[in-house]
Structures are given as structure tokens and as C-alpha cells.
User: Fold these one by one.
Assistant:
Number 1:
Amino acid sequence: MADVLEGNAVVGQSGGPTAVINQSLAGVIEAAARSGAIRKLLGARHGVRGVIQEDFVDLSGLDAGLLERVAATPCSALGSTRDKPDEEYCRKIFDVFAANNVRYFFYIGGNDSADAARIVNELAAEADYQLRVFHIPKTIDNDLRVTDHCPGYGSAARFVASAIMGDDRDNASLPGIKIDVIMGRHAGWLTAASLLARRDADDGPHLIYVPESAVSEDQFVGDVTEAFRRHGRCLVAVSEGIEDEAGQAWGARITQTVERDNHGNIQLSGTGALGDYLAAVVKTRVAEELGVGKLRVRTDTFGYLQRSFAGYASPVDQVEARLAGTTAVEYAMAGDHDGSVAFRRTGEGDDYAIECFRAELADVARDTKPLPAEYLNEAGNGIDESFRAYVAPLVGDLPVLGKL
Amino acid sequence: MADVLEGNAVVGQSGGPTAVINQSLAGVIEAAARSGAIRKLLGARHGVRGVIQEDFVDLSGLDAGLLERVAATPCSALGSTRDKPDEEYCRKIFDVFAANNVRYFFYIGGNDSADAARIVNELAAEADYQLRVFHIPKTIDNDLRVTDHCPGYGSAARFVASAIMGDDRDNASLPGIKIDVIMGRHAGWLTAASLLARRDADDGPHLIYVPESAVSEDQFVGDVTEAFRRHGRCLVAVSEGIEDEAGQAWGARITQTVERDNHGNIQLSGTGALGDYLAAVVKTRVAEELGVGKLRVRTDTFGYLQRSFAGYASPVDQVEARLAGTTAVEYAMAGDHDGSVAFRRTGEGDDYAIECFRAELADVARDTKPLPAEYLNEAGNGIDESFRAYVAPLVGDLPVLGKL
């Protein structure tokens, strides 16, 4: 490594946590320790907010046992933030970096974090200050561009698949209509993973709704009615971000008091409103279609458990999240460049494998990647079987169920 | 075994499923096969309903591989029912038994199932028809009398503990007030298991509310405000069945359209209404107490995942549920008596062990067992540390987390 840049480094975590976001942090800590160039690795408490408040924890020389325990712990060990830095905020970040001889910045987060990293990087370039900035992707939504998939997604998908698998058996035990609301504001990747729960023809989910396929209330009622007639029960997996035929999110239409976060996003998670609304639609309109007085209708909103549940992360996801962390540091050591760590799939099925490559920050920042049309069924109420090959290796082995 | 009664046997599953209810079924199948007295073992589809409709599946000679897969599958493989048989219904059951030379009836269920078993048993005695009836306990609520604990509880408690453990890290990542609604209509056993998530003084759950301790809205607001001031965040574990100072369930007060099941129980599960209500209380009243304009408040209702999640059952619970099934058959073989299988704890801590004993059906039927007062804290907003020794062995090893 000809181009050694000595100095301090900062690492932070941002946005909604995942079950493996600390694996990436552990990767950064490990690789920084052996870099030979990073003198002190500072962990910023609550992401960029910790940077501007100079609220740091020294991560150099962390005990190996503690490192592994932290790595296996869900959610952001450094704390997270929803702050979306504007130019002025980024200037403050840069000033702190310059004052502390910070030459490396590793930011573990989603596309908003990639954008913040990009702006800080530009400010450093303008000031002719050598700073190497690497974004380390994480999101259970799996909606970052460029990369094949995102660390954090596999574990959330594993949770969803196991939950739907069990809930399908619950629904078969006491037949009725069950609606499960799954995270995913704009992208249906996580909801689509419920497909893995379906092994036999009669298995749920019998219907899967994602934001990429608009669904009207009439279609929803018709679909559920037909599925119930066919199976004598119906399990529905629905994304919290589903949109109606006019392109409006059902959740937004329903929620009377709309709460927005700092990124202008409407709060869809952390409330049972969409599920309760859909249940009410089924109890009235589907019951009428079926000509029955009363229907057993239940709804669950999987909520924050999808990203935080302890002890059930995907083994592959853990390894890959760690790799993303170490790779970011190695890329930063290797030359005067910046970017985001991305995955490319180099093997499928039993030979599943990935390799990392460097993506440009600007290509990852801001816009997101929806579920491609090839994975959506024509009727707009299901996921194509071809999606199984994409998602199965990311989730790891799932329980094998038995039926009588 | 001097007193061999030859004939057929019926096994059925009833009520809300659990993650290990099929372990008990597998236990019955195994023990029946080696009994030497049971000619044919008939599985009743959907419990007593399958009996009166003579909807049976022959479980004799089941393939060993399939048996193990079924055993490891959550929820009732035979299907369940909410039917609560009255005297006439029980007479029909008895008629089917008599017509099919059924001499053994194994019913896996809660206290209502024990009661149904008891009535059928009395009818058989009146008719001078030799029938041996055994109830095999299951309930995630853990509220059956006589037994130390119920098969199904440990797995649900394991799910709750891991969920709260992860969610506490989520809440620490993005501080705010988080409310998690946990199953348990009348008894707080399952909600109390959230205590296992608390390892350090700052860990959540910071407040635990169970139906056994009445809580007024004023107390709830005061408690949350104080906890938030102390920890800078607050994680609340609350039972779906909490009652106010007038002894009314919060859920019933809130739910405008009250749905009751066949046992006259109000539907508290399968809706996000209580969580959303509590969140609204916090957003207004706690925010006012704290003098802040806006609070980050989220709520999750853990719902059916607690009893159905695939792949995360407690190992101890699996073994014990199997044991309850085999023991019921062995008791039935051993003499002309009936009853319910109960557990007695014979060792604590690392030496945790149980032994089975026979309980009378009448002692298990109907009434339930609340969380004893010794496990409730004085303020009515937490669980005493002594509960840990009771619940920990039932749940099995939990993840060990690391913090920075």
C-alpha cells in the first residue's frame, strides 16, 4: 500500500437498525486495528449527531470477547439517528473532522447516510483536506441501488419467513382470514420474502401485496374472497407501504394524524392502523361477498421485531455484514478514493457466493431500488416463484415443517 | 400392567395453538404405538368438532421421520377448535366413541378442554362404558391450575424475552417511548417473562404491566414520564389484558366493536387497538408532563407470533411437551383412572428438573391460575426479580448481548 494516509477514523451508524448492523461495526473495528494507518478509531454516538457534538467512544483496542458480543447484538450499539444533514450540518461534521485529524469516515446506513457521506466528502475535497469516506450499506428494506442486496435484509427476511411459516400453521389450525403487515415503506423486498413460507400448494401466504403493485380496495376484497373459497382460509402478507390505484399509500389515507420523521417520511411502522383497517374491510365486505354473517379475521403487524429480534439473525447475513465493514476499511486503505461497499453475486443456489466491489457514493445516495417487475405476478397480488432463488441464500436454512 | 383395556384411542387438539403442541401429539402417537393395548389411534380433525363429525385421520404406524417433522412444527397439526362442548355436545362425542370402540381419549388443550374431557368422562361413567380420558395441558398463558407450568409457555416466553431484548436495543438506538403489547387475557405470566430481557440496570423493559395489578391511566402516565426522565427513553411491556382501577379491561373499554369468541371471551388479540390507544395517551399526556412538543412513540403488538413462530421454540419446552404426551398414555395404560398430566419441579437453577404427576380433571378444568402476588412489585408496574428463577429454566439459553 503505497498511499498510506495516517490519522484518526470515525465510524457511525444511522437510520433504522438491523439485526446485523453491529457486525459491520465489528468489521470496521477489526480492520481498523490491523490497518497500520488508523491511529484512533472513534465511534460517534448516534451517528452524525454524535460527530457534531463530539460525543465519541474510543473503539481502539476493544476486547475481542466484547467485540464478538457486540457483533452478535441486534441494533446500533453506537446509537442511531434520523438526522438528515444539510450542507451546514455537513460543514460542522467536516470542521470536527479537521479539528481531530480525522482522515477516515465510515458511515453505516441507508441511502440517506450515503448522501450525507457524499456531501461531507465534497466539502473535504473543496477544502483540499484529505478525507476518505466510505458508506457501509444496511437496510432491512433491501432497497439500495447498485448492490445485489443489503446487509440486514437477510435477517429481516428470515424473521418474516419464519413468522409467516408459523402463522400459516396457526391459520390452518383455526381457519379464518389472517392479515400480516410487513415493513417496507416503498419497496416490497421484505414482504416478498414471505414467499419462502409457501412450500405446498395449500400453504400461505395465499396473497402477497407489495408497494410496487397498486391494489384497489375492490381488488383486495375480490382476491381475499376467492382465496378463502379455494383454501377455506386465507393468509395475506401485505407491505405497510401498499398503494391504491391512485398511487396513494393506504397507510397515509387511513392514518388521521400523520406523523412525519425528519426525512419527511410518514410514519407507517409502529402502529396497527393499517392492519386494523384491512381487517375491518374483510369483516364487512368479504363476509358480504361470501354470504356469511361472521368471519374470523385477525391481523398482526410484525413491526420492529423484524429488524431487532435477538438470536435469530441469518448466518449468511451476519458474515456478509461483517465483510462489508472490513472491506470498507480495506478499500479506504488501498487508495485515495471513496465510495460505498456493494455486493455482486458470483454463485447461485448451493454455490451461492458474493464478492464485494466499490460503488460510487452518488450512485447509492438518495434514490432507492424497487422490487423489479419480473418478480411481481400479473394479477398484482403475488410474487413470482423466480424470486425464491434470489432470496433463499440470504435467509439461510428455514425450519422444515411436517403436516398430517 | 394387570388392567389392560384394549380398544381404539382418539387424540385431539383444542384452543389457541402453541409452538410445541405437536410435541405432545407426537408423544401420544409414540406411546400409543408401544402401548400394546391401543389398536388404532385416531386423530380428530379440529378437536371435538372432528369427533362428532367423525373426521378422523389414522395415526397408527406413522412414519418416524414425518412424526419428528410434525413434532417440530408449531401449531395444531390436527387442526384446532374453539368449540366448548355443552352436555349435549359431549353426549354426541360419547356416542361416537361408543360406536367406534374408543376406550382412550387424549385431549391436548387448556382448561376448557379439561372441562370437556371431564364431562365426556362422566357420561361414560354413567353409561358404565369403560373410557379413560386424559387431558394434556398446553397454553402459552401458563394459567392452568395444579401444574408448575404448562407446555407451550416456555416457547412463547422465549419469543417474548428475545423480542423485548432486541427491541430494547432498538429503543436505545433511537431513543423514545416504545410500548409492546403481549398476549395474556387474564394472566400476566407471558408478559412477566419480558423481565428476562433486563440484564443491566438501564435495560428495558422499564415498566411491566400485567392484569393482576390494576393500573389507572394516571398511574400509567406518571410511570412512563418518570421512567423516561430516568433513562432518556422508555420500553414498556404490557399485557393485552391489563385492567383499570375499576377492574375493567382497558382493551374492552377501547374496542368499540366487541367481538366475543364461543367461550364468551372478548377479542383482545389480533388487533393493534390497545397499543395504538396507549401510544396516543403517551403522545398527549406524557409529552405534556415532560413539557415537550413531540415524543417519538411507537408500539408493537406481538400477536400470534408468540405462539406460532417457527424455528425458535424452547428446547426444554419441546422435551417437556413430548413428555406430557407420552405420560398421558402411560397413565391411561396403568390403571382405570383419568386425569390431567401435571409437572412438579424437582430441581432449581442449573439442576432444574421436573417430574410428572396425575391431577384430577376437575381440579384443572375451568378456573385459571393468575401470577401469584409474590411476583408483583408493590408499585404495580413491574415484576419481582424472584420470578427470574421460575421462568429462566423454561425458556432456555438466551442471547448474550454486548454494549459499547
Note: The mean pLDDT of chain B is 93.
Number 2:
Amino acid sequence: MIAVLKHGTTPDQVSHLVGWLKRMNLDVHVSEGQEITVLGLIGDTSRVDMDLLKSLEIVETVKRVSEPFKQANRKFHPKDTIIQIGDVRIGGGYFVMIAGPCSVESEEQIIEVARSVKESGAHILRGGAFKPRTSPYAFQGMKGEGIRLLELAKQETGLPIITEIMNINDLPLFENVDVIQVGARNMQNFDLLKELGKTRVPILLKRGLANTLQELLMSAEYIMSEGNEQVILCERGIRTFETYTRNTLDLSAVSALHELSHLPVVVDPSHATGKAKLVPPMAVAAAASGADGIMIEVHNNPACALCDGAQSLTPAQFDDLNHRVQRVREAIL
Amino acid sequence: MIAVLKHGTTPDQVSHLVGWLKRMNLDVHVSEGQEITVLGLIGDTSRVDMDLLKSLEIVETVKRVSEPFKQANRKFHPKDTIIQIGDVRIGGGYFVMIAGPCSVESEEQIIEVARSVKESGAHILRGGAFKPRTSPYAFQGMKGEGIRLLELAKQETGLPIITEIMNINDLPLFENVDVIQVGARNMQNFDLLKELGKTRVPILLKRGLANTLQELLMSAEYIMSEGNEQVILCERGIRTFETYTRNTLDLSAVSALHELSHLPVVVDPSHATGKAKLVPPMAVAAAASGADGIMIEVHNNPACALCDGAQSLTPAQFDDLNHRVQRVREAIL
Amino acid sequence: MIAVLKHGTTPDQVSHLVGWLKRMNLDVHVSEGQEITVLGLIGDTSRVDMDLLKSLEIVETVKRVSEPFKQANRKFHPKDTIIQIGDVRIGGGYFVMIAGPCSVESEEQIIEVARSVKESGAHILRGGAFKPRTSPYAFQGMKGEGIRLLELAKQETGLPIITEIMNINDLPLFENVDVIQVGARNMQNFDLLKELGKTRVPILLKRGLANTLQELLMSAEYIMSEGNEQVILCERGIRTFETYTRNTLDLSAVSALHELSHLPVVVDPSHATGKAKLVPPMAVAAAASGADGIMIEVHNNPACALCDGAQSLTPAQFDDLNHRVQRVREAIL
Amino acid sequence: MIAVLKHGTTPDQVSHLVGWLKRMNLDVHVSEGQEITVLGLIGDTSRVDMDLLKSLEIVETVKRVSEPFKQANRKFHPKDTIIQIGDVRIGGGYFVMIAGPCSVESEEQIIEVARSVKESGAHILRGGAFKPRTSPYAFQGMKGEGIRLLELAKQETGLPIITEIMNINDLPLFENVDVIQVGARNMQNFDLLKELGKTRVPILLKRGLANTLQELLMSAEYIMSEGNEQVILCERGIRTFETYTRNTLDLSAVSALHELSHLPVVVDPSHATGKAKLVPPMAVAAAASGADGIMIEVHNNPACALCDGAQSLTPAQFDDLNHRVQRVREAIL
């Protein structure tokens, strides 16, 4: 970490600051120029509060030279992490299609969707049991019963299952869940992350709507620092001024995260765009950008002719998309 | 709620959609024009998933005519809510200054700050015991011991205390806390909100970094719908492209929230700007904009000469600011 | 256009508003419900100031049913526009690679780059002669001399050339330029757009850093409404809170613009990401998303070993990228 | 300027880079640590392209120690600039109210509004003659005739006038205009700025919707570097994700700009909020934050009962607001 001090800082102020930094067990290397003084901080700077340091009157600027994340950092772990989920692998060249309905609604629904996406080549079944909803009056999901139905669909098809947790006290219900999802709104629910770090279940961690890539990696670090190294990162769109799409899918996050970290990166174009028509081109683009997996909403309700335009694809559309994704993956090898 | 259907929608599609809406217990009033068909939905539309409706192929656009929040809505509760906190009131013309250190660090520190801000006219003491930190390696607060020290400062000075909760399982520790704060990162931690809704303690709810005013009010609604009507809203800056300030303080939120809701609105200029120099002008501007309270970071560590430039004010600066805030409040009466 | 009036609007106010709208040559269809009154405005609503209408006290909400752009609108022009640039075509299945240096620096440089990108399969040569720079003290481009050097490179290689205009008074210098570029900062320089609309030269119009897709199409409309229908839209990243990349490339804009408009859409990953390492994956993703062209910065300065990490690719990197882009384009057919 | 080089940079690479920097007439001070190498660049670094430097492979990070603006910089010009406009002064403790209609519509309208705002205490009359409109089909202003009517109103009332320029070729029409406004969309129309820099007329420069404070000051620098030092900065809201207000008024910009620069700062709450109800509280808050002036839209069309809810205030509302603003200004002295 580098701290540049302002012109006019007195020797007294410098030694005060150096003393304070040394008490944090850092080595401080002072380089005094004519115009400015530069402090090089060596040691475990991940404990230093950059915001505080920056806000000191005598400090011009502070820059980290090393990223504040360690276990998620590719520098200390150059090889891609490969995560095993049942018979499926993700990362390091292994690619997965995750598909299923937004919410689990009934046994019939989830089993039918599960069968159909399996047939089309999906590797993992997704489905929401606990649903984070902006309104307290909206349907909050089938909860425990939803997880039970996902387990049935798993038995029926052999597909591993992924579903979202919102409250650490619900953890016992997730015993047979293969991947636990942390939603965008909980990306910085640090207590939840820490508790999930104590499990040994793979975690799919979604990027928050207003969170930087570094913050996403710091949240992964919360999980990993408790001992659970199986974290899958997920880009699902960020909040911008554009209103045509629900959010703005940041596909450059895929390559950027691969550069910074060894963890697998998955893209969710369904939630990002909020429009079924945009899901296939964005899924194909995600595959081309090097994503390790794609997560797609698929519904299967022939009775509900209305739903065709929603962000969910029909099983037939998913089948077609899956073929195009595979062709693009071959093209970029 | 109004749904405008696309040109070319068939009568069959219309009756399908109307049937689906009626099964949600809504009255549907169909108005067919030459170019478009407009559906008026009457009844409890707070259960309708707007995103789903919007995404249907035949739907051009959907607009809520009534806001989706009810208990927080000024339309149904025209009078300002006044919340009693010990001997202090906030809202409906009652104005409070909330002051204290970012984190509780020691008995000496918190009691000294408490005494000094009380003397300068603060009404409530703030201090962090559980600290949400981006990095798992950073200091996470004194936790239960921090709350105990706040209680000591309360005994010593008579000031009510406010501190942040991050995990509902810690609730028993907050027994003597006068106002429980929900931080920006937990604004949509819906399970936490629901549990706090079951208490009868005033809640200070901070706006999330990327959350709209309507989302903030929906989160207040989560608390209120469980029976706790004592919610104080807090604007603390939103995330934008500007990097000179830590966040961008959205002062128009104060008037906007007062128009939409009867709940008191507090402004936190310390976290929003991240710079001590900007705190006083923004605090004064917040008072001028009609805020019901202002929350200021004040530290008191004569040993730490370094901290003078941080976002915290010294007791002397707070004292001066408090006078200016009072003068501005008189000017706008 | 639909205007929903507030509950409690008096018949007098309604007839006032209807009269005002009719004076704008609109047919107004009034539909009075129990709770709300809906006005359907039929006719040329592109002249109606939505912001003004929305801000009226009695108006709850206003929604356009038809987009405010006409000539750029796919509804009125379902077939893809194909633009001819020398021997090259773009749009409607024709795909172009545009490559060249950020700035024209010397005859040697531009001719060498032109030859090398032509050999690698580029269709159009780009190079900046007038450079929009944040600082008045930074190099502002070779201006007229830069255009002359581009013309030399065109003679030498046969590649059509594209370069940016910043001031309409410079137009005479662009006589032999094949595509005139309007930069992101000038996307809403309406006088410049109108003047370019009077030429018959293809215009590449870049999306502004904070402009919506609809605003981009309205700016295209400014050019088209003056008679120049040859507009190429360009996505080059929008400004968000993320700082890892220079801007956030919004690839969903490609499909969205194709849905809304018949104009060709090009992607510029070099300016969007600002990092050479991210250019190839984003270029490949852009091709997969259905873009009609990609614009890449390529430099060729063997003396400047330093530049290897900049957002520009070397000719060898461009050659490799071009092959991958072609493979991906075949995969998505 | 400080450049931190990456761990592992070879001595050869360092000397290459140092050579390149020295050829830009910079002194380079190299400080090699165990982990990193820091270059201190001394001299006129305003010519250095930070983006290029940052993007070099061997560069970890670059930070400016001195801001890239000079003439607008308070460091080199500590005293507040006071600008004389007719008999009116702005800056350095002099405060102005600027008021008038969005667009000049007729002689009757502009003279009536001018008289009424003068009576209420306004110092300068505003009115749009050239209107930047998103749509080419919307009313574009009365242009030259609009300026003539403003001149009439000036003769009639003695109020200096301010109006927006969009095209440098229109400059001759602005001969009798007291302050020329550059709108948000033209903040980075550098050629326009340079030409205005050659005049000696005060320029009101509005912040672009997605521009940082530093970029605003760099645009002021474009004007000042050509010799025109009379620049008034104007905060008018930035584009964020929030949709309740048209834009988000960034009031912390006032203090921040005052810290960075000696130029006067004006706030425009009418365009920022887009809602008449929010204009008075934001105007009062702007005064409290230390703004040197406030710009308010006032209309005066008794025939148009509809317009009462628009972002414009009535003369009576402006009169009331003006009194409150004056009281707040006295309170913060």
C-alpha cells in the first residue's frame, strides 16, 4: 500500500502517522521527495482502513498495490478452481448450464421443468423456494416445502439443485441442496456469508446491484476466510440509468474476475435483462466472453399462454439456446 | 394499476389476461380504443408482480396509480408520525441531532464523546458496536461489549442510544437500545426487517446505496406490516459515478419522502460525503431542506492528532455546527 | 400516448387539458373510470413534451405507446438498413471490422497500421485527427493534416476511412472521408447532427456516456430527419459506479437496438474497457451478441515497447482476434 | 504525479518509461522499494495522458498529486473570483437570484415575467431562445427572435439577461447578452468552449449529466485558457438510477467546487428535480450549502391553469421563496 502525503506535511506529522501505522504491525518505508512524501506500507495491509487513511488531513492519496482479497486472489492461487457438484464440475474449462423456474410452484411444475431442461442438456436445476421480494405483500416463495419439491426433482432426474438462502436460521433446510445461492441483495450480509463459510457446501454468490468487482471478491473472501473455498461468482446485471433493460449486464466482469481471481464465474442473463428476447443473445455473448456457466430461467406452463413474453424461456427456446451456446464455446477454444 | 396492451392484441389474449388478473381478486375494467386497449386494475394491486406483467408479450406498459406501500403512505395517514425516544421526539416539527463516534472503542472514549455532544445540544448518542466492513480482516466492532459501553454512556448522560444491528440473532443484546439502526447494506435484508417489525423499538432504516425512494418505503413497509410503526427513514448518500465524495448525498430525498410518507426523515452527511470539510455545509443544507434530524460522526481522541481530517468532526466543530443548524431551522419556519 | 389523470381531477380541469392537447392537433379519447381518467392521445405525439405533461399537477403518469422516433424505428421500416461504404457493406447480415490507431501520428505510422490491419482482414481504417480531450493542455490531434494522412493510407490500401468530427465548420476537410464519426460527447450536439443530416455521408453515431438507448435513437432521428438515412449506431460503454473498467460496456444494447431500429449497430470494446486484455473477450462477445461490426484500436509502434499494455492491440493480437470473431460469427448463424 | 510500477518490472522497462516521460519535459524521481518502484513526475504533468499511462502493462497505478486544472484552481488563485454582470456581482459573498421562464414564448410573456421577478428581488433574467431538445420534432425555441425579446425585457426592467448558446456560429446574435449559458449537453463541446474563451462575456457553464467535478473544472479551464476568466459553474443534477426526480441534485458539489476552485457556483433546482414542489426546499438548501446564486424557472401564464404543477414556480411562489432564501443566507453568515 502506498500513501502519498501532502506538500507541507511537517516531520512531526509524518512521524505521528508512521508510528500509528507501525502499531498495526506494518513496515513503513518513507521516501521523501522535494514536493511530496511517499510512504510504502509493507505487511498485512488488508487490515488497514483505506477510507480512514484517505480522509486524514495530511494524506493526498492512498493506493493499494496488492488487492485486499487473498484467498480469492489469483496471484496466490494461479490455477483455476474447479468445483465438484455431484457429477458435475465447474471452472477450469468445465462449463455448466443451470436452468429452472424463477419460483418453485408445485410438484408437477418443478418435475416437468427438471425433466425438460435435463433433456436439453442442463447440468444443474435452479428454482426459488425463499424469494426476496421488494414488497411484503408479494408471494414470498414456498419456503421449506419448495426445497422438498426440489429434492424430489433431484431424485427424479439426478440433477443437482441450487436454491437461494435468505436467513442463516434456515440453513438446516438446505441439507440436501447442492449449491446454496446468496442473492444480490445479500451480497454484503456479512454475517450470512461468515456462517456459510463454516459449511462445506458450494456457494453461488451473486454480485450486488451497486457493488464493484472488488467488493464482490471481498464478499467471496468472507466465505473463504471461514474455510469454505467453494465459491462461484455470478454476474447478474448492475443498476444504471438505462431503463430499457431491468439492469445492465456487465459482461466485462467475466474476464475481469478471471484475471483477478481463480474462482468460476457464472452469468445470469434472465434477471439482468428482464426480457426473454434479450436472454438468448446475452447468454451466447456470455459464453463467448469466457463464462464458466450460464443460469437461465425456464418455465413450463402450457396453461399459462401469457407467460411467453416474460424473462423466462420455454423449454423449446432453452433447447435451441443450449445448442447455440455449445457451438460458440467450440468456436472460442 | 393501469396496463396498456399492444396494438394487435387479440380478443382471446385479452380475455386470457383478464381471467388471470381476476383470479388474483382484482376487478378489471377494460377500455378498448382504436389503437390500444387499456386495462384498469382495481383492488389490492400490491400483490401484483409488476415486472412479470410488464414482461408479457402483449403488454405495452404498466403503471401503478397507487403506490405499492400502504402503512408508510401519507395518503392513508396524512399526519406526520412523531416518534418518542426516551424524552426526545422526532418528526412533526420535532428535530433531533444524533451524534457520536463511528465505532465504540473504549469506555473512556464513548463517555467523553457522550458528555461533550450532550453539552453541545445533541439529543441522541450514536456509536457502532457491530460494524459492517467490506473486508473480513478489518475490525468488526466491539459487539456485545460495545453495546454495554453505550449503556454506560446512556446512564452517565441520560442520552438515548442508537446502534446498528446486523444479525437478528443478536437482538437480545439490544434490550436497552433506544433506536435500532438497519444499515444501508441490510436495507433489503427482508428477514431482518420482518423480525424487527415484531419488536416495538423505533427503527432507523438507512437507504441502500443503489435503492430508490420507493424501495426504501417498501422496506419500511416490511417493518410496519409486522406491527412496528416506529420507523425513521435515513438518507445517507447513493452510489454514482462521482468519486470526489464517497457517495452522492441526495437531499431532494428529504422533501420527496415527506411528500410520499408520514415517517420522519434523518440525514447522515458524514457517511455520504466521507470528508469532514463537507459535513457542516451538508448538515446545514439538510436542515434547510426540512429534515427531521441529522446524524453526525463526532470523535474525541486528543491523542490521535491524525484523525482531524477524517469524516468525523471534533466536539468543537460539532458545537459550532449545532448552532448554525439551529439558526437555519429558525430561518425556514 | 396515454395520460392517466389523478383521482379527484375535476371535469373542468379535464376539459382544459383536452383543449390544450387538441390545439396540438391531437385526437383525444377520454375514458373515465371510477378511480381514474385515462386520456388516449392519437396523432403525431412526437411533438408533445412528455416532461411538461408529466409535471402537470393533475397528471398521474404519461406513457408513450409509440416510440418518439420514426425514421429510425423498425416498426415503420422492418427491413435492416444496409449501408454501402466503398466496396464494403454493413448491416443486414454484412459484418465489418474497423481497426486503426487512436490518433493519427505520422505518415509512416498510419500507413503501416493500415497495411497490417488490411492484411488481417479489417474492412475499414479508423484514426483520430480531431481528438476530444478532457484537458485543453493535452494533444488535440493532427487535425486537417491527420485527415490528409488518412487519405494517403486509403490510397495506399484501398480501405475506406472513418474519423471523428467535432465542429461543423471543419466539414469541408471531410470531403474524402467515407464515414464521419460523432463522438460520445457530441451525441446531443443537436446542431452538429442537423448539419450532418444535410450531407449524404454515412455517420457513425456513438452513444453518450450517460445516454439511454431511446436518446441515442432520437439523436439518429435528428440526422435522418434532415434526409441522411445512413446512420450507424455505436455502443462504446456507459458511465457507472464500477471503476475497474473505464466504462461499462452494455452489450444488451446490441439486441435492444436491433429490436427497436433497423440501423446497423457497431461495438467499440477498446474505449469501453480501456484495457487491452479485456478487448478480445469483449469483441468476441459483441460478435456473439449479433453486432454488425466491431471497432478496435490497433497500434503499430515497435519502438514503443511501453504501449503493449494499453487499450490498443498489436497487429498480431488483432490478427488473432479477427480469426476468433469470424469463428464465433459462423457459430451463431 | 505519482506512478507506481508493478512488482517484477525490469530495470530495462523502468528506464524505457523514464526516457519516454523525460521526453515530455518532466523530471522523474525514481524511488525503488523492495516490492515496488515509485516514479515521481515533476513539471507540467497536465499534458500527460493519465489513461494511457495507467493502461501500460508495467504500471500498477497512477495518481495526480496536483489537479490538472490551473487557472480554475484555488491553489493558484486563493481569492474568490467576483464577476460583474451589469450592476450585479456574483461570487466572493455576492449572491444572485436568476429567474425567468424555461423558453421565451412572446413579448408579453417575457416582459411580464421580467417585471414580476424583478419586483420579487431577482437580479438576472433567464429565458431560453435556443432550446436543446431530445426530439428533432419538438419546439426548438424562438432563436434570434427570442434573444431580441430578452433584450426588450432588459431595456424594460434593467435586469441583465442570460441565455443559452448551442452553436458557435450563432455568437453574433449574443452581442447584448450579459451571460452566455453553456448547457449540460455541451459541457464537453470543446470547440464551443474554446471560442467562448475568446470572448470577454461571462459564461455560465452547466455540469453535464454524467460529468465529474474535475471534468467540469477542466471544461472551465478550456474557456479560461483562451483568456476569458469569467466562468460561473452551475450544478443542475446528475443522472442516477433514481427516477422519482428527473435528475439527482448533487448539493455537495457546491462546497466541493468552492474548495477546489475560486469560481462562483450557482445551483439550478428546477431542472434538477423536474418538480415544482421540490424546487423551494432545494433552493433553500442550496443557499444553506453556500451557493453563490440560484437559478429558478418562473412562468407567468394565467391562461394556462394547467401549468401550475410543472417545474416552474408562479411569480407568487418565487416571491415567497426569495424571502426564505434571504433568511437562510443571513442565518449561515
Note: Chain D has a mean pLDDT of 91.
